[in-house]
Amino acid sequence: MNFRVAVIGAGPSGLYAAAALLSSGEPVSVEVLDRLPAPYGLVRYGVAPDHVKMKSVIRVLQKPFDPADVEFLGGVRIGGDGIPLDELRTHFHAVVHATGSSVDRALGVPGEELAGSLGSGAFVSWYCGHPDFTELAPPLDHPGVAVVGAGNVALDVARVLAKTADEMAATDVPGPVLDALRSSAVRDVHVLIRRGPQHVRFTPAELRQIGDLAHAQVVVHDDGLLAAGVEEPDDRRQRQNLAMLGEWVDRADDGSPRRIHLRFLRSPVRLLGEGRVSGIVVERTAVDPSGRVVGTGEEETLDVGLVVRAIGYAGEPIPGLPFDEATGTVPNEGGRVVRDGVPVPGSYVTGWIKRGPTGVIGTNKGDAQETVAAVLEDLPSLPAPAHPEPEALREALAAHGIRPVDWTAWLRLDAEEVRRGGLRGAERVKVAELAEMLDAAHGADAR
Length: 447
Prior knowledge:
Layout: E1 3-8, H1 12-22, E2 28-33, H2 41-45, H3 52-55, H4 58-61, E3 70-73, H5 85-89, E4 94-97, E5 103-104, E6 117-119, H6 120-127, E7 144-148, H7 152-162, H8 165-168, H9 175-182, E8 188-193, H10 204-211, E9 216-221, H11 225-228, H12 236-249, E10 258-264, E11 266-272, E12 279-287, E13 293-302, E14 306-309, E15 313-314, E16 332-333, E17 336-339, E18 342-349, H13 352-355, H14 363-378, H15 390-399, H16 407-424, H17 434-442
Helix pairs in contact: 1-14, 7-10, 10-12, 16-17
């Protein structure tokens, strides 16, 4: 008997799950569904355009598709105006949800609702060419920008804003994004970090990148902590970060046209402006003996026209599945979805929607293997789907007005992006508008 499994989400977590299912040796056919016409999820739409080496993981993620063992169905929405989840289940023994965590967490400060206040997920999606964010138009007409956060995403945002358009032209950013960066008035990017330099958990490689920028200088604001000497942390990466920051403290102004200000022991308390952001008020903080961050009551105002918060993400509820609002995840035990402590037959999760937005891309591999082990254990006892034929699923999608982008169609879109890249001297240039993506994948009659 051939078991049919659907994986919803073509990002790293979903594709690692598909690969684990295929390598199991069990008689399993896998179909990977994604609401976008292009695969690779977070690697395509979350990894900074200039992180070419990190994007090379795509060569690993695409392996299941090479021998056509896995069917890719892009442009397929589940629920809403797409195919209902309950109907999809009638075509598969099991469904693995790998939809990630896409909601930006809020700062929870006054003024956050102003125009020019954005989450990093939205901002990163814009410069990575995500079709949902082509109309974002972040305001880059002011010399000052504040980025709130102490992780690698905050550094990614700061680095992209500090690079010149000519530097970014060698990446895969869409043309309209490159045009916006070329006309950018941004000169000072202020990264606001609640803790001290000895506490940061940037990866050293990421931190080093902002120090190596050709047209921007890093300015460290740490209230003199590094000059006075701080106790070295036990963590090796934190020690490497501390050494780099110590070198930058003593750098003289080198006349670079742009600056990245690392402002330690600073926390935002409110955004200023009428209609749009015109400034941000930050409070100096301190770390008490117990390790808690406390406010000192001393405030300062930074002149900025854009605030990007990079403080984490949460998952969105999946219609038809239980959801834990506190953790932003689907309740599960080892990947098995549970409702009120009882497993939901045939329903599984992997990736961020399973464990929360933690870890790196490779973390998803072990996570997927755990979930797939549960799927394989359960398959023999799961009820057979009412409509197991692949043709039946295509007919159901057509009935909901869905024309899926299969792997061959994606390769046509991929070729178009490579063609555009050649015209600009880049490896590829992303097609970002959904209609253009579908035209490239299906032909001009796609709409």
